[in-house]
Amino acid sequence: MKKRTLIVAGALSLSLALAGCTTNPYTGEREAGKAGIGAGLGAALGAGVGVLSSSKKDRGKGALIGAAAGAALGGGAGYYMDVQETKLRQKMQGTGVSVTREGDNIVLNMPNNVTFDTDASNLKPAGANTLSGVAMVLKEYEKTAVNVIGYTDSSGARAHNMTLSQQRADSVASALITQGVSAARIRTSGAGPDNPIASNSTAEGKAQNRRVEITLSPLQ
Fold this sequence. Notes:
This protein has 220 residues and is of the alpha+beta class.
């Protein structure tokens, strides 16, 4: 029984480490996230502590309880975000939306050709469908704050761009709320032409700068 329980605990450790893996969008290869590895190691160490600290009769139960507790401590917020990132990557495949990891934060970059027509703040059908997929993940992972920022290129008056970018961020937030995401988790802002990710001297660069970014962060 003891041997069987330790095998189960070991399998739990391995599955947690694998769950923390993500697929590199450029190479297509699986990569282990640090938090996933931490959760796996935590589960293994926790199982050992559970065995040593339990009576002979309860060692099997102690190993499993220790493994679960160790996984939680080993992974922490990073593991929570690892799993959420994996699900978002699956949902966003083929949508034109990029998913980037920045520490414990996840950034979704929604280009304007997916979300809005030129100089408009009403979501395109494709953008609304994409946000439906985002909302499904956000409802499953409720311990995440959602920061929505709208951006424009440098064309036109700054005041107009600031207003337009705010309206677009608000439209994205409204779509998420309509899909069941709590409004209390969401903040919005419009940055206009600030923080460009490409040169505004070319049409291609301007197209990249017209975007909405959704940053997901662990709730403190």
